[in-house]
Write a structure and sequence with these properties.
Layout lengths: L1 H10 L1 H16 L10 H4 L9 H17 L1 H35 L3
Helix pairs in contact: 1-5, 2-4, 2-5
Length: 107
């Protein structure tokens, strides 16, 4: 459920909007070309130690996430998706139990 909820959150309108705001913030700080907050960490950076470009990008990334409230939006969307999925799973389980008990016909 966690992976499905994360995927649903990433695809949600709220997270997409926060991602776009984050990308605009990054561009305004001179770090254009990123469309998602996942992009900087996926970039191939020189090894083994972070260089000044990587550190500066990381600082801008965190600052922009803070400015647009990205983490709060993403966590809320993921939690909402988890609740929705669990409620769906629980209601399905309840219906299955009702059918099972009806089939037993214990009256």
């Amino acid at each position: 459920i966690a992976d499905m909820a994360r995927a649903a959150a990433i695809a949600s309108t709220e997270v997409q909007s926060a991602s776009a705001a984050w990308a605009r913030c990054m561009e305004s700080r001179g770090y254009g070309g990123y469309s998602s907050p996942l992009d900087p960490s996926a970039k191939e950076w020189p090894e083994p130690r972070p260089g000044s470009d990587e550190v500066a990008t990381a600082v801008a990334d965190v600052e922009c996430k803070d400015v647009v409230g990205f983490v709060d939006v993403a966590l809320r969307a993921e939690a909402d998706a988890q609740v929705e999925m669990l409620e769906g799973a629980a209601s399905g389980t309840v219906e299955e139990l009702r059918r099972y008990w009806a089939e037993l016909d214990l009256d």
